[in-house]
């Protein structure tokens, strides 16, 4: 199967009779496709697979079929979106048997995924994802609560600014149906959204949380948490963690103290997680846990704990 990492070079394009500039335009869509599919799927690994499948379908066509496509970029976006729709449908069934809670795959900040292996000419796909509000961990968790159709309509229209007429063409629905789906998704986002603290203040809260945890200061941890804070973990059955969300500041603080009492030999490092301040636990240079936070009014509202090693490969620093 042809992958986007093994796309034909310019010489090959010439042999096939296709202009080099056309091939460059097709390959140049990869960044956009990775950004789109990661937001649609919440998993960079699955996003890569979706983009790979999209390019495989493009290169499976004859030059005549390719030339008949007026806008290769629009064709690639349509195919990638439909691949994601199918994946989202099957993912719901898979997650019913998932051990514990399923969380999105966390992304390291620029230059923070030391040890990442380049993925072909475009580099690692994580480096091509624009770390804006639409990939914040809290936002991705809300997207997970949507139906596949809601998620696709909302991401295409509200995040990538596609007109509803184009969203309808991509998804095979009417513009009115897509408008209704996006509106429903928007209500979910508004209901879940909390006023985000400025980045500098978020950074300060995470730094204080790290210091309090390392000092085993339970009172300080409780003071940094919202009384109704919730902590959710994802071990995927592959790493030890709590399987049900922990609710309440005191309960979370006691759980974190228990982790500390067990002699956690990992080193805590403050890192950017999906564009926001977070923490990473490392053992012998290998990332074993990523902590993402939702902070409002200088209090931690949510903590997401990622321990599933399959979702931490891009964080390996060894």
Give me some keywords for this one.
elongated, alpha+beta, disordered N terminus, 318 residues
Strand order of the largest sheet: 2-1-6-5-4-3
The number of distinct helices, counting runs of at least 4 residues, comes to: 13
Structural class: alpha+beta
Mean pLDDT: 87
Characterize the largest beta sheet: strand count, sense, and whether it forms a barrel: 6 strands, mixed
Overall radius of gyration: 21 Å
Q: What percent of the residues sit in helical stretches (DSSP H or I)?
A: 40-55%
Describe what is shown at a glance.
With 318 residues, this protein is of the alpha+beta class. It contains 13 helices and six strands. Helix 8 runs antiparallel to helix 9, helix 8 (148-159) packs across helix 10 (175-192) and helix 11 (199-214) packs antiparallel against helix 12 (218-224).
Structure description:
The protein has 318 residues and is α+β, with helices and mostly antiparallel strands. The chain contains 13 helices and six strands. The chain has helices at 10-16, 20-27, 30-41, 44-60, 63-67, 72-95, 137-144, 148-159, 164-171, 175-192, 199-214, 218-224, 249-261; strands at 225-234, 246-247, 267-273, 276-283, 286-296, 299-306. It has a six-stranded mixed beta sheet. A hairpin with a 2-residue loop joins strand 3 and strand 4 (276-283). Helix 11 runs antiparallel to helix 12. The chain is elongated, with a radius of gyration of 21 Å.
